[in-house]
Structure formats: structure tokens, C-alpha cells
TrEMBL record:
<comment type="similarity">
    <text>Belongs to the ABC transporter superfamily.</text>
</comment>
<dbReference type="GO" id="GO:0016887">
    <property type="term" value="F:ATP hydrolysis activity"/>
</dbReference>
<dbReference type="InterPro" id="IPR003439">
    <property type="entry name" value="ABC_transporter-like_ATP-bd"/>
</dbReference>
<dbReference type="InterPro" id="IPR050763">
    <property type="entry name" value="ABC_transporter_ATP-binding"/>
</dbReference>
<dbReference type="InterPro" id="IPR003593">
    <property type="entry name" value="AAA+_ATPase"/>
</dbReference>
<dbReference type="GO" id="GO:0005524">
    <property type="term" value="F:ATP binding"/>
</dbReference>
<keyword id="KW-0067">ATP-binding</keyword>
<keyword id="KW-0813">Transport</keyword>
<dbReference type="InterPro" id="IPR017871">
    <property type="entry name" value="ABC_transporter-like_CS"/>
</dbReference>
<feature type="domain" description="ABC transporter">
    <location>
        <begin position="9"/>
        <end position="238"/>
    </location>
</feature>
<dbReference type="InterPro" id="IPR027417">
    <property type="entry name" value="P-loop_NTPase"/>
</dbReference>
<dbReference type="Pfam" id="PF00005">
    <property type="entry name" value="ABC_tran"/>
</dbReference>
<keyword id="KW-0547">Nucleotide-binding</keyword>
<protein>
    <submittedName>
        <fullName>Multidrug ABC transporter ATP-binding protein</fullName>
    </submittedName>
</protein>
Length: 312
């Protein structure tokens, strides 16, 4: 259980229905504690951006409540919004402004006094300092995305929302931005990111929330999610091809490859006794000789696909 004193964002029974009858969020409950990185994983149209927009006060929920730092996001909108930095999906920047000026201007929008030292630190942390005098139209897409993060951090928020932060960014820059997020988290900034990249969620997040059709299907520690839902396969190479699996092995979840020389045993990795010892003994009893044995665990992508399919 999360200690209530640690909870920074408390989302309770949030539903968002539009006039046309479409339900974008359906009774969503989620608690996020200070300093953690949580990834919201889901297909297009799942409700990820709507949920972020609701917490930020951009969209008003049909029902339910959200508190940030103990304050209601509707009644205390100005105070809660000051605590939040938002990096949107779209690359909306002022093309003819310099990097330094646009980040400084955003800080002022939140009522913060001018502080060139803060802006300098943010730009250096994001490897943007050497671009500080460049106009935004001169930057690459990846650099523009970094500027959006700098703008979101300009007023020194406690919470950073990143909506698809590395979409369209090359692998090298993506990993560089992961490092930036880790450093921010270490300073106490709470980070909530939405992503389509399975490896991004697995690499970055302390917890993963899977969302589909406006509902949170599951929220788990990343490692615990893998442990609970991950299935393993034991790949058993055999010395002589089999025409068919013998009846004595029917108790096990086995498949035989097309070339009849590989037996695959599927089992739940979280079970204390997955039956491997019994299987190996049964293979010996059936006079099946093995030449090699290896295991393979299901990836987070497999888990995600299965969850969304089951919820459909």
C-alpha cells in the first residue's frame, strides 16, 4: 500500500463523457506518489492524452475528483497548474524566437520572476545551451522536442507530464532523453509519461499503467508486472525427430515444431513449481534424448497485447 502522505496526485472515479455519447475516460482511479516515474501504456484512442489533460485542468471531467498536492484541480486550478509542467505531443513552438527567450517567456507566464540562472541550468541539463541563441525554426525535430521539455520545466514544477515524449525521435536521442528524465526524477520531480514504445515503459518506469478504451486495466510495479504476468517457454531440442508427442506427456503444455526436433514447454513464471523437473523426468521415461535446453520469457509487449486483447 502507498502511504497517503506520499501521494502527490490522487485521481478518483474520473469519467469523461462527450455530448455525442463517447466515453473517453471510464471511472479511472490512480494514485501517483512524489518522485516516481509512471508510464501510461495504451493504443491510440485509449484515453491517455485525455487523462493527462484532465489532471492539467485542460479538460473538465464529467464526474470524479482529482487532487494535486492535496488541492482540487478545479477549485484550486491556478495553484495546481503551477505545480505541473506539460510536454504535449505536438511540436508547437514560436518559430522566430530564440531558445533562451521562449523558455524564459514561458517561465513568466506562470508568474515566476526572471531568473537567467535557472534557464541556463535547464538548457544545459537538456544539452540545449549551445543552441540558446538559435531560432526555433533552425532546430531539428528532436531539438524542438527538447525545447518543449525546457519550457515545461521553466517554472520549476513538481510534476512533469510527457505525452509521447520521444515520438519521431531517433534511438540515440531517445536514450539521451531517458537519461534526462532519470536525472529529473532523482531531483524529486514526479514524471508521468504516455508512450507507444514498450521498451520505453520497461526501461524508464517504476510503475506501468495499461489503459484501453478509457479504463485502467492494471497498474503495477514494472518488475512485478513481468513476474505476475510473464510466461516463460522452455525450448527443448531433441536428438531424433518425433512423429508426434507421446501420450505420457499430455499433462504438459507442449508443442512440437514443424521439423519435429524442438519441443516447446509453456509455463507460468510466477508459479513456485512450474513442473520442469517432472517434465524432464517424463522425457527420460519416454526415451526422448535432449541435445539442448533454453528458456525465453515473454516481453512486456506480449503482456500488453494480451491485456488489451482480453479487455476487448
Amino acid at each position: 500500500m502507498t502511504d497517503n502522505a506520499d501521494i502527490l496526485i490522487d485521481i478518483k472515479n474520473i469519467t469523461k463523457k462527450y455530448d455525442n455519447g463517447f466515453t473517453a475516460l471510464d471511472d479511472v482511479n490512480l494514485q501517483i506518489k512524489k518522485g516516481e516515474i509512471i508510464a501510461l501504456l495504451g493504443p491510440n484512442g485509449a484515453g491517455k492524452t485525455t487523462l493527462i489533460s484532465t489532471v492539467c485542468g485542460i479538460i473538465t471531467p464529467t464526474s470524479g475528483t482529482i487532487s494535486v498536492g492535496g488541492l482540487d484541480t478545479i477549485k484550486d486550478y491556478r495553484d495546481t497548474r503551477k505545480m505541473i509542467g506539460l510536454v504535449p505531443q505536438e511540436l508547437t513552438t514560436d518559430a522566430f524566437e530564440t531558445v533562451f527567450d521562449t523558455v524564459s517567456f514561458t517561465r513568466g507566464l506562470f508568474g515566476k520572476p526572471r531568473n537567467p540562472a535557472v534557464i541556463e541550468k535547464i538548457l544545459k541539463d537538456l544539452s540545449l545551451w549551445d543552441k540558446k541563441d538559435n531560432k526555433l525554426r533552425e532546430l531539428s525535430g528532436g531539438m524542438k522536442r527538447r525545447v518543449l521539455i525546457a519550457k515545461a520545466l521553466s517554472h520549476e514544477p513538481d510534476i512533469l507530464f510527457l505525452d509521447e515524449p520521444t515520438a519521431g525521435v531517433d534511438v540515440e536521442l531517445r536514450k539521451d532523453m531517458w537519461n534526462v528524465m532519470r536525472k529529473l526524477s532523482q531531483t524529486g520531480v514526479t514524471i508521468i509519461l504516455t508512450t507507444h514504445y514498450i521498451e520505453e515503459a520497461e526501461e524508464m518506469a517504476d510503475r506501468i499503467g495499461v489503459i484501453s478504451k478509457g479504463r485502467i486495466l492494471l497498474v503495477e510495479q514494472t518488475s512485478e508486472l513481468m513476474r505476475k504476468l510473464g510466461h516463460k517457454e522452455m525450448l527443448i531440442e531433441i536428438s531424433e525427430p518425433l512423429s508426434a508427442l507421446p501420450a505420457s506427456l499430455s499433462d504438459f503444455d507442449l508443442t512440437l515444431s514443424d521439423d519435429r526436433k524442438l519441443i516447446t514447454y509453456s509455463y507460468n513464471a510466477s508459479h513456485e513449481h512450474p513442473g520442469i523437473t517432472r517434465l524432464l523426468k517424463a522425457l527420460i521415461d519416454a526415451d526422448i534424448r535432449t541435445t539442448d535446453i533454453s528458456t525465453k520469457q515473454s516481453s512486456l509487449e506480449d503482456i500488453f497485447v494480451n491485456l488489451v486483447r482480453d479487455a476487448a
